[in-house]
From TrEMBL:
Pfam families: tRNA_Me_trans, tRNA_Me_trans_C, tRNA_Me_trans_M. The active site is at C113, C210. This is tRNA-specific 2-thiouridylase MnmA. It comes from Pseudorhodoplanes sinuspersici. Its EC number is 2.8.1.13. The lineage of its organism: Bacteria, Pseudomonadati, Pseudomonadota, Alphaproteobacteria, Hyphomicrobiales.
Amino acid sequence: MMNSLGLDSRPQDTRVVVAMSGGVDSSVTAALLAAEGYDVVGVTLQLYDHGEATHRKGACCAGRDIHDARQVAGTLGIPHYVLDYETRFKEEVIDRFAESYVAGETPVPCISCNQSIKFRDLLDTAKDLGAQVMATGHYIASRSLVGGGRALYRAREEERDQSYFLFATTREQLDILRFPLGDLTKAETRQAARRFGLAVADKDDSQDICFVPQGRYTDIIEKLMPTAADPGEIVDLDGKVLGRHNGIIHFTIGQRKGLGVATGTPLYVVRLDSHTRRVVVGPRDALRTRRIGLRDVNWIGDGRLAEALDAGRREVFVKVRSTRAPQPAWLSLGSDGCEIELVDGEDGVAPGQACVFYDAPDGQARVLGGGFIRSAVAMTARSSIDTSTIASARPAG
């Protein structure tokens, strides 16, 4: 008879490693599994130590949070280990984050952390500890498929859904990963924390970019790559110079405020050219994107991707930003890899962001996979420029 984690064994005979960040979500995950009688082992990763960041409200995986995770483990009576992953985290997440920004992209470091640190390195550690399963406090659901294997689904509470950050999870990883909070609301999670007597029940949620002191990511980038703040020109779509800037890392696609130029009409950042260090601005309609090229695509729908494309393409629903709702699109394979055609278009699509596929526009839709945006083609004639060369270029000098 299958246990609640989908394994054919008694809970007490099933070892589960829980990734404990020191927050309420992972703490409740450990508490729920321990209450069911599973052999729970808590593991906390020391990921960074940037002084001020370790004491900042909303930080995770450093300083106070390690103490909180240890305290929760003590309350639950489960073993707890702290592993030093600082070097790996810097190389796989922080350095790549900086490189991506300097290249004119808009990276999502939480995806890199899940992809390389938590679901690769930590998963290997869980296996070394003899665990059959590794559980995390992410708000996403994992369920068994009728024909075998497992699938990912959006969380019950739409506002808490974290599927955008987990699209790169592979089928092999899904066999071992579990997400007990996927069918809970945040309010229910906090109620459970109080019921278990956990000191973190009312602790603030962690921030998206956990390793950035005071939320100033440019400080980190300039420290790692001093030339990242080299000045350049602000130009319009025709190449006319409108002003100067103090580094493209201070700008993002779609930005309107703080451009430092005035023409009498609203202007938005349309492109970032890392090779020439130019910030290209234009009207709002120049931001509207219809076609997107993807790289590093991960498909976790049924079968192989090529087989899943009916007549060369497939209707999906995609998110190009974590805060936006899925919208209808067509997924196909082009000469340069996977391509997305947005039915209604989207504003402010930037290289480096993720594009995540779903089988439905709302509810607990199944996650079909996704990829990183390599290029974006705007809908207006004047700005129909493929940004793939811009996004992959590196600053001169």
